[in-house]
Amino acid sequence: MHGSATSPTTSLSSWLLVLLCTVSGAYCLRRARGSDAGAAGEAVMGFGMALMAVPLGGRGDGWRTPVLGVVFCGAALHALWLLRGGPHHAHHLVGSLTMAYLTLMTGPGSEHGQAHAQAAGPPLLTGALLLYYAGYVMLGGTRLITAGDAVSARPAPGRGGPAELVRACRLAMGIGMLAMLLMM
After folding, report:
1. How many angstroms separate the CA atoms of 109 and 123, rounded?
2. Residue of 160, 169, 164, 143 lying closest to 152 (CA atoms)
3. What is the pLDDT of residue 58?
4. 71-76, long-range: CB within 8 Å, 24+ apart, which pairs?
5. What global pTM score does this model have?
6. Residue in 50, 44, 42, 45 with CA at minimum distance from that of residue 16
7. Among 144, 168, 172, 180, which Cα is nearest to 22's?
8. Among 50, 107, 165, 178, which is 20 to 30 Å from 96 by CA?
9. What are the Cα distances from residue 178, in Å, to 28, 35, 85, 138, 141?
10. What is the pLDDT of residue 14?
11. pLDDT tens for residues 38-90?
């Protein structure tokens, strides 16, 4: 995704990000099969993030950018449609649009975007997204820590899993998104 696939540090961090996003996506998919239909979008996001983080070293970049762009734009349209049900889905819209942005900025032919980022520092949008996800991760981590005593290990209503595990999955996806933005 970012940098040379031959760099040991980049390769290791990319593969750890792939693992984190795949496990999160698989858990969300399992929840989607149960009683939480809203988890399907989170599963798509997790698997899409995992696919985007795979270090291909320039191989396969020709198909990845357009396919992921279509997937994430479709997810953004779906999240926009779900906004009718309440503001909770605004985060899904931000996430989908962030992934579409990352796909555009890191895909082949994005040399212009990378040259601009190197010449003028990180773009304003990247900085705003970094602040958003840093806040999301901090808030999610705080909620997860404080929920340890207040939330039981019973499945959350309509969630298909323990409330702490659902929160941890969302936190892991937020950390993954923050990592992808930092590696951009």
Report:
1. 17
2. 164
3. 63
4. 71/44, 72/48, 72/96, 72/97, 72/99, 72/100, 72/103, 73/100, 75/41, 75/44, 75/45, 75/48, 75/99, 76/100
5. 0.76
6. 50
7. 172
8. 165
9. 19, 29, 27, 11, 14
10. 84
11. 677 788 888 888 888 888 766 666 778 888 889 899 989 988 988 888 887 89
Distance between CA atoms of 21 and 158, rounded to whole angstroms?
23
Three-class secondary structure of residue 3 per DSSP:
coil
CA pseudo-torsion sign 136, 142, 143, 144? positive
Is-contact 149 158, C-beta < 8 A? no
Q: CB–CB of 28/75 below 8 Å?
A: no
Residue 112's pLDDT band, with cuts at 50, 70 and 90, is very low
